[in-house]
Amino acid sequence: MPTPPKNPLRYNRVLLKLSGEALMGEHDFGIDPKVLDRMALEIGALIGIGIQVGLVIGGGNLFRGASLSAAGMDRVTGDHMGMLATVMNGLAMRDALERSNIRTRVMSAIPMSGIVEHYDRRRAVRDLKDGDVVIFCAGTGNPFFTTDSAACLRGIEIEADAVLKATKVDGVYSADPHLDPTAEKYDKLTYDQVLDKKLGVMDLTAICLARDHGMPLRVFDMNRPGALTRIVTGEKEGTLID
Protein backbone atom coordinates (compact mmCIF):
# COMPACT_ATOMS: atom_id res chain seq x y z
CA MET A 1 0.00 0.00 0.00
CA PRO A 2 1.31 3.50 -0.85
CA THR A 3 2.35 5.53 2.18
CA PRO A 4 0.16 8.62 2.74
CA PRO A 5 2.23 11.82 2.48
CA LYS A 6 2.58 14.15 5.46
CA ASN A 7 1.57 17.12 3.28
CA PRO A 8 -1.75 17.18 1.41
CA LEU A 9 -1.33 16.49 -2.29
CA ARG A 10 -1.65 19.33 -4.76
CA TYR A 11 -1.92 16.86 -7.66
CA ASN A 12 -3.12 13.26 -7.69
CA ARG A 13 -2.52 12.43 -11.36
CA VAL A 14 0.23 14.06 -13.41
CA LEU A 15 1.61 13.84 -16.92
CA LEU A 16 5.39 14.18 -16.81
CA LYS A 17 7.13 15.39 -19.98
CA LEU A 18 10.83 14.56 -20.29
CA SER A 19 12.97 15.71 -23.19
CA GLY A 20 15.03 13.12 -24.99
CA GLU A 21 18.08 15.29 -24.38
CA ALA A 22 17.59 14.84 -20.63
CA LEU A 23 18.35 11.13 -21.05
CA MET A 24 21.80 11.87 -22.53
CA GLY A 25 23.22 13.03 -19.23
CA GLU A 26 26.75 14.29 -19.86
CA HIS A 27 26.97 12.54 -23.24
CA ASP A 28 26.36 14.06 -26.67
CA PHE A 29 24.12 11.27 -27.91
CA GLY A 30 22.13 8.27 -26.72
CA ILE A 31 20.96 7.22 -23.27
CA ASP A 32 22.83 7.43 -19.97
CA PRO A 33 21.71 4.50 -17.75
CA LYS A 34 22.54 6.52 -14.62
CA VAL A 35 20.04 9.21 -15.68
CA LEU A 36 17.37 6.56 -16.26
CA ASP A 37 17.95 5.10 -12.81
CA ARG A 38 17.79 8.53 -11.15
CA MET A 39 14.56 9.39 -12.93
CA ALA A 40 13.10 6.01 -11.98
CA LEU A 41 13.92 6.81 -8.35
CA GLU A 42 12.14 10.19 -8.57
CA ILE A 43 9.09 8.68 -10.27
CA GLY A 44 9.07 5.81 -7.78
CA ALA A 45 8.86 8.33 -4.94
CA LEU A 46 5.62 9.65 -6.47
CA ILE A 47 4.16 6.18 -6.89
CA GLY A 48 5.07 5.49 -3.27
CA ILE A 49 2.81 8.31 -2.03
CA GLY A 50 -0.07 7.35 -4.29
CA ILE A 51 0.45 9.73 -7.23
CA GLN A 52 -0.65 8.45 -10.65
CA VAL A 53 2.04 9.11 -13.26
CA GLY A 54 1.80 9.26 -17.04
CA LEU A 55 4.99 9.91 -18.98
CA VAL A 56 5.85 11.35 -22.41
CA ILE A 57 9.49 11.31 -23.53
CA GLY A 58 10.96 13.15 -26.50
CA GLY A 59 13.38 11.57 -28.95
CA GLY A 60 15.97 14.30 -29.51
CA ASN A 61 18.77 12.28 -27.91
CA LEU A 62 18.51 9.72 -30.71
CA PHE A 63 17.11 11.59 -33.71
CA ARG A 64 16.09 15.11 -34.69
CA GLY A 65 13.88 15.19 -37.77
CA ALA A 66 13.87 18.98 -38.06
CA SER A 67 17.62 19.18 -38.73
CA LEU A 68 17.50 16.52 -41.44
CA SER A 69 14.43 18.18 -42.90
CA ALA A 70 16.51 21.34 -43.32
CA ALA A 71 19.09 19.22 -45.15
CA GLY A 72 16.48 18.00 -47.62
CA MET A 73 14.85 14.96 -46.01
CA ASP A 74 11.07 14.74 -46.34
CA ARG A 75 9.59 16.23 -43.15
CA VAL A 76 7.01 13.47 -42.71
CA THR A 77 9.70 10.80 -42.98
CA GLY A 78 11.84 12.64 -40.45
CA ASP A 79 8.95 12.97 -38.02
CA HIS A 80 8.14 9.27 -38.31
CA MET A 81 11.77 8.45 -37.51
CA GLY A 82 11.54 10.76 -34.50
CA MET A 83 8.45 8.88 -33.31
CA LEU A 84 10.43 5.64 -33.41
CA ALA A 85 13.13 7.29 -31.29
CA THR A 86 10.53 8.08 -28.61
CA VAL A 87 9.55 4.40 -28.54
CA MET A 88 13.18 3.43 -27.97
CA ASN A 89 13.38 5.90 -25.08
CA GLY A 90 10.10 4.57 -23.68
CA LEU A 91 11.41 1.01 -23.68
CA ALA A 92 14.60 2.13 -21.92
CA MET A 93 12.60 3.99 -19.27
CA ARG A 94 10.28 1.03 -18.77
CA ASP A 95 13.30 -1.19 -18.15
CA ALA A 96 14.67 1.23 -15.54
CA LEU A 97 11.30 1.52 -13.79
CA GLU A 98 10.69 -2.22 -13.74
CA ARG A 99 14.17 -2.82 -12.33
CA SER A 100 13.00 -0.56 -9.51
CA ASN A 101 9.91 -2.79 -9.08
CA ILE A 102 7.53 -0.19 -10.55
CA ARG A 103 4.86 -1.68 -12.80
CA THR A 104 5.01 0.08 -16.16
CA ARG A 105 3.08 -0.03 -19.41
CA VAL A 106 4.28 1.45 -22.70
CA MET A 107 1.66 2.57 -25.22
CA SER A 108 2.41 3.80 -28.73
CA ALA A 109 0.28 6.09 -30.89
CA ILE A 110 1.48 3.97 -33.83
CA PRO A 111 0.61 0.23 -33.83
CA MET A 112 3.77 -1.75 -33.06
CA SER A 113 2.54 -5.24 -32.26
CA GLY A 114 4.97 -7.43 -30.35
CA ILE A 115 7.00 -4.49 -29.03
CA VAL A 116 4.58 -2.14 -27.26
CA GLU A 117 0.81 -1.85 -26.96
CA HIS A 118 -1.27 0.46 -29.12
CA TYR A 119 -2.55 3.54 -27.26
CA ASP A 120 -5.92 2.96 -25.59
CA ARG A 121 -7.13 5.83 -23.42
CA ARG A 122 -9.53 3.77 -21.28
CA ARG A 123 -6.90 1.10 -20.65
CA ALA A 124 -4.35 3.79 -19.78
CA VAL A 125 -6.66 5.37 -17.20
CA ARG A 126 -7.38 1.96 -15.63
CA ASP A 127 -3.66 1.24 -15.39
CA LEU A 128 -2.98 4.62 -13.79
CA LYS A 129 -5.68 3.96 -11.20
CA ASP A 130 -4.02 0.60 -10.49
CA GLY A 131 -0.74 2.36 -9.69
CA ASP A 132 1.11 1.60 -12.92
CA VAL A 133 3.27 4.17 -14.69
CA VAL A 134 2.03 4.59 -18.27
CA ILE A 135 4.54 5.76 -20.89
CA PHE A 136 3.00 7.29 -24.01
CA CYS A 137 5.23 6.95 -27.09
CA ALA A 138 5.28 8.00 -30.75
CA GLY A 139 3.95 11.48 -30.04
CA THR A 140 0.43 12.06 -31.32
CA GLY A 141 1.00 9.55 -34.11
CA ASN A 142 0.93 12.38 -36.64
CA PRO A 143 3.78 14.33 -38.26
CA PHE A 144 4.19 18.07 -37.64
CA PHE A 145 3.25 17.73 -33.94
CA THR A 146 5.89 17.95 -31.21
CA THR A 147 6.15 15.72 -28.16
CA ASP A 148 5.21 18.80 -26.09
CA SER A 149 1.89 18.85 -27.96
CA ALA A 150 1.59 15.11 -27.38
CA ALA A 151 2.18 15.62 -23.64
CA CYS A 152 -0.58 18.22 -23.41
CA LEU A 153 -2.91 16.06 -25.50
CA ARG A 154 -2.36 12.94 -23.39
CA GLY A 155 -2.59 14.97 -20.19
CA ILE A 156 -6.00 16.27 -21.25
CA GLU A 157 -7.16 12.83 -22.39
CA ILE A 158 -6.26 11.07 -19.14
CA GLU A 159 -7.64 14.01 -17.12
CA ALA A 160 -4.34 14.73 -15.39
CA ASP A 161 -4.27 17.48 -12.78
CA ALA A 162 -1.23 19.06 -14.46
CA VAL A 163 1.44 18.59 -17.11
CA LEU A 164 4.91 18.79 -15.56
CA LYS A 165 7.67 19.69 -18.00
CA ALA A 166 11.18 18.77 -16.89
CA THR A 167 13.93 21.06 -18.21
CA LYS A 168 17.55 21.95 -17.47
CA VAL A 169 16.61 25.17 -15.62
CA ASP A 170 14.48 25.70 -12.51
CA GLY A 171 11.55 27.39 -14.24
CA VAL A 172 10.70 29.89 -16.96
CA TYR A 173 12.97 32.91 -17.45
CA SER A 174 12.65 36.12 -19.46
CA ALA A 175 15.75 35.00 -21.40
CA ASP A 176 18.14 32.05 -21.41
CA PRO A 177 19.74 32.26 -17.92
CA HIS A 178 22.83 30.45 -19.24
CA LEU A 179 23.42 33.28 -21.72
CA ASP A 180 21.92 36.27 -19.91
CA PRO A 181 22.76 36.62 -16.18
CA THR A 182 20.12 39.37 -15.85
CA ALA A 183 17.30 37.03 -16.96
CA GLU A 184 14.29 37.22 -14.65
CA LYS A 185 12.66 34.06 -13.33
CA TYR A 186 8.87 33.91 -13.29
CA ASP A 187 7.10 32.08 -10.46
CA LYS A 188 3.73 32.21 -12.22
CA LEU A 189 2.50 33.08 -15.71
CA THR A 190 -0.73 32.92 -17.68
CA TYR A 191 -0.88 31.08 -20.99
CA ASP A 192 -1.36 34.38 -22.81
CA GLN A 193 1.69 35.90 -21.12
CA VAL A 194 3.78 32.97 -22.35
CA LEU A 195 2.50 33.56 -25.88
CA ASP A 196 2.80 37.36 -25.77
CA LYS A 197 6.33 37.31 -24.36
CA LYS A 198 7.37 34.54 -26.82
CA LEU A 199 9.05 32.69 -23.94
CA GLY A 200 9.47 29.45 -25.88
CA VAL A 201 8.39 27.18 -23.02
CA MET A 202 6.50 24.94 -25.43
CA ASP A 203 5.40 25.30 -29.03
CA LEU A 204 2.32 27.34 -29.90
CA THR A 205 0.11 24.30 -30.45
CA ALA A 206 0.93 22.83 -27.03
CA ILE A 207 0.34 26.10 -25.16
CA CYS A 208 -2.95 26.79 -26.95
CA LEU A 209 -4.14 23.23 -26.31
CA ALA A 210 -3.38 23.56 -22.58
CA ARG A 211 -5.02 26.99 -22.43
CA ASP A 212 -8.18 25.93 -24.25
CA HIS A 213 -8.67 22.97 -21.89
CA GLY A 214 -7.51 24.65 -18.67
CA MET A 215 -4.58 22.27 -18.19
CA PRO A 216 -2.03 23.73 -15.73
CA LEU A 217 1.62 23.48 -16.78
CA ARG A 218 4.58 23.48 -14.44
CA VAL A 219 8.14 23.89 -15.69
CA PHE A 220 10.89 22.70 -13.36
CA ASP A 221 14.46 21.40 -13.16
CA MET A 222 14.50 17.60 -13.13
CA ASN A 223 18.13 17.65 -11.95
CA ARG A 224 17.08 19.02 -8.55
CA PRO A 225 16.65 15.96 -6.28
CA GLY A 226 13.12 15.69 -4.89
CA ALA A 227 11.68 18.32 -7.25
CA LEU A 228 8.79 16.12 -8.37
CA THR A 229 7.78 15.26 -4.82
CA ARG A 230 7.92 18.92 -3.80
CA ILE A 231 5.64 19.86 -6.71
CA VAL A 232 2.92 17.32 -5.96
CA THR A 233 2.94 18.08 -2.24
CA GLY A 234 2.40 21.79 -2.85
CA GLU A 235 5.85 23.21 -2.17
CA LYS A 236 7.27 26.03 -4.27
CA GLU A 237 9.11 24.63 -7.28
CA GLY A 238 9.60 25.88 -10.83
CA THR A 239 7.12 28.05 -12.73
CA LEU A 240 3.35 27.54 -12.85
CA ILE A 241 1.49 28.41 -16.06
CA ASP A 242 -2.31 28.50 -15.83
Automatic annotation (TrEMBL):
<dbReference type="InterPro" id="IPR015963">
    <property type="entry name" value="Uridylate_kinase_bac"/>
</dbReference>
<feature type="binding site">
    <location>
        <position position="167"/>
    </location>
    <ligand>
        <name>ATP</name>
    </ligand>
</feature>
<comment type="pathway">
    <text>Pyrimidine metabolism; CTP biosynthesis via de novo pathway; UDP from UMP (UMPK route): step 1/1.</text>
</comment>
<feature type="binding site">
    <location>
        <position position="60"/>
    </location>
    <ligand>
        <name>ATP</name>
    </ligand>
</feature>
<feature type="domain" description="Aspartate/glutamate/uridylate kinase">
    <location>
        <begin position="12"/>
        <end position="221"/>
    </location>
</feature>
<dbReference type="GO" id="GO:0005524">
    <property type="term" value="F:ATP binding"/>
</dbReference>
<dbReference type="GO" id="GO:0033862">
    <property type="term" value="F:UMP kinase activity"/>
</dbReference>
<dbReference type="GO" id="GO:0005829">
    <property type="term" value="C:cytosol"/>
</dbReference>
<dbReference type="InterPro" id="IPR011817">
    <property type="entry name" value="Uridylate_kinase"/>
</dbReference>
<dbReference type="InterPro" id="IPR036393">
    <property type="entry name" value="AceGlu_kinase-like_sf"/>
</dbReference>
<feature type="binding site">
    <location>
        <begin position="17"/>
        <end position="20"/>
    </location>
    <ligand>
        <name>ATP</name>
    </ligand>
</feature>
<keyword id="KW-0067">ATP-binding</keyword>
<comment type="similarity">
    <text>Belongs to the UMP kinase family.</text>
</comment>
<comment type="function">
    <text>Catalyzes the reversible phosphorylation of UMP to UDP.</text>
</comment>
<keyword id="KW-0547">Nucleotide-binding</keyword>
<feature type="binding site">
    <location>
        <position position="176"/>
    </location>
    <ligand>
        <name>ATP</name>
    </ligand>
</feature>
<feature type="binding site">
    <location>
        <position position="173"/>
    </location>
    <ligand>
        <name>ATP</name>
    </ligand>
</feature>
<feature type="binding site">
    <location>
        <begin position="140"/>
        <end position="147"/>
    </location>
    <ligand>
        <name>UMP</name>
    </ligand>
</feature>
<dbReference type="Pfam" id="PF00696">
    <property type="entry name" value="AA_kinase"/>
</dbReference>
<dbReference type="GO" id="GO:0044210">
    <property type="term" value="P:'de novo' CTP biosynthetic process"/>
</dbReference>
<dbReference type="InterPro" id="IPR001048">
    <property type="entry name" value="Asp/Glu/Uridylate_kinase"/>
</dbReference>
<feature type="binding site">
    <location>
        <position position="59"/>
    </location>
    <ligand>
        <name>UMP</name>
    </ligand>
</feature>
<feature type="binding site">
    <location>
        <position position="64"/>
    </location>
    <ligand>
        <name>ATP</name>
    </ligand>
</feature>
<dbReference type="GO" id="GO:0006225">
    <property type="term" value="P:UDP biosynthetic process"/>
</dbReference>
<keyword id="KW-0963">Cytoplasm</keyword>
<feature type="binding site">
    <location>
        <position position="79"/>
    </location>
    <ligand>
        <name>UMP</name>
    </ligand>
</feature>
<keyword id="KW-0665">Pyrimidine biosynthesis</keyword>
<keyword id="KW-0808">Transferase</keyword>
<comment type="subunit">
    <text>Homohexamer.</text>
</comment>
<keyword id="KW-0418">Kinase</keyword>
<protein>
    <recommendedName>
        <fullName>Uridylate kinase</fullName>
        <ecNumber>2.7.4.22</ecNumber>
    </recommendedName>
</protein>
